[in-house]
Amino acid sequence: VKKKKEAKGSLIIIGGREDKEEKMVILSEVARQVGKGKLCVATLASSIASDLWVIYRNVFRKLGVTHISHLDVVQRDDARDPACLRAVRGADAVFFTGGDQLRITSELGGSLVADEIAKIYEQGGLIAGTSAGASVMSESMLVGGPSDASYRGNSGVKMAPGLGFMKNVIIDQHFAERGRIGRLLGAISQNPKYLGIGIDEDTAIIVKGDEKLSVIGCGTVYVIDARGATESNISECDEDRALSIFNVKIHLLSQGDSFDIASRAPGHAKRQGAA
Amino acid sequence: VKKKKEAKGSLIIIGGREDKEEKMVILSEVARQVGKGKLCVATLASSIASDLWVIYRNVFRKLGVTHISHLDVVQRDDARDPACLRAVRGADAVFFTGGDQLRITSELGGSLVADEIAKIYEQGGLIAGTSAGASVMSESMLVGGPSDASYRGNSGVKMAPGLGFMKNVIIDQHFAERGRIGRLLGAISQNPKYLGIGIDEDTAIIVKGDEKLSVIGCGTVYVIDARGATESNISECDEDRALSIFNVKIHLLSQGDSFDIASRAPGHAKRQGAA
What we know:
Strand order of the largest sheet of chain A: 3-2-4-5-1-10-11-15-16
Radius of gyration of chain A: 18 Å
Low-confidence stretches of chain A: 1-5, 271-275
Largest interface: A-B, 39 and 39 residues
Largest sheet of chain A: 9 strands, mixed
Oligomer: homodimer
Shape of chain A: globular
Strand content of chain A: 25-35%
Number of helices of chain A: 8
């Protein structure tokens, strides 16, 4: 019998612009989890992939990671390339950089490389991602939508299928910094089964076995729960009709806070052991 | 016995940038409520007061208001000027333009002109305001704070005493457009007795007798209710510590929606009469 829960690895999902020079709280946690293992840095979301590779390779080296490979798929054909497979095979962790989330899923989706990455996670490894690399973590991902705007039928909120490591959530990044609460509220109003998770810059959630998340970094994580919403006009939001939705719950979490995904309950990581 | 509730007038609180050229849904409602009465346009928030006076005079004339006066206090001394008192005396409605909300309260607060305006409201008149003119409606008003940022101890959220027409709320304007949910969440976390009301541009709430609001215009009104919040670290938010607050309720209201302030319950204005 497959012990599904124990087999699963962990996720570190970062809201973008994580500190790479000073305290490096988030990248240190990635490095700590990688330990003596092999880390694959996947830059395929980016149009400046080789620059990002150099930046992250240097940072992770500084943080003590000794075994680092580079995955830079440019076209779907590359995902069959032996060099690409070598980059991920044997890795204990994969780190997805920022860029365009659709590049990640359109280049990797359904490929052997993607299967390898899924295997790393299923066997207890770490999948981390920042910015676009954060959005791809969910099954349904946000790929577009306005900044600083309430949701409307024509406001351009777009979704696509993600890599699916984290179930039942929709993740957004650069959250407060780019004024994205409007688009995330729109996305979860479409199906309140999905919990909205908006992550600020230099802030991350650590997810273990898809069940509990905890927050590190200097910003806020907004967990938006519309399951109890009593009314919404989302299906009538044509053209420039603005969204109505009543009784949505929102939790602001910061460093040291946690959230139980199954029970949808916030808590303090620090007080976990308290009576 | 003073029938307090019936004696009170109505408020139209606008999130800024209301349409002045096309459908003019909001300003038409102001004009409709003024009817054959006298409207005083108060431009004292603005540094371009005479320009605003010309713009609003022309718009309200176009909308059928025939009796329009101009209140332009520049210094506290002016608030004793007979011309200022004449502008407000006998008015059935006052419209506060945008600008800086602190100019309104610092120039008017405690003056005879302010007493006259309060009397207009108490006797059933209309007080309307847009942008800065919206913020001053509450007892405690937001006067500063960042755009596109989560609340932190040092993020510069500033409050001051407002004109106090609407009790138990804190109003913010240009809400989605300037990414202000972070600062409003911070403000209401300080005292969850206060309901946060964030109003988008070209969107307004109509408040009757301080008890019920309804929404007009093309954007969204965010009603944020932290009374049921289970935990918050606001009092420990020093320096750059980010805010945590759990179990906050949020309602997105749009045209046709209403909100009962006493029971804190959203509804549809249209369905009010339904069984």
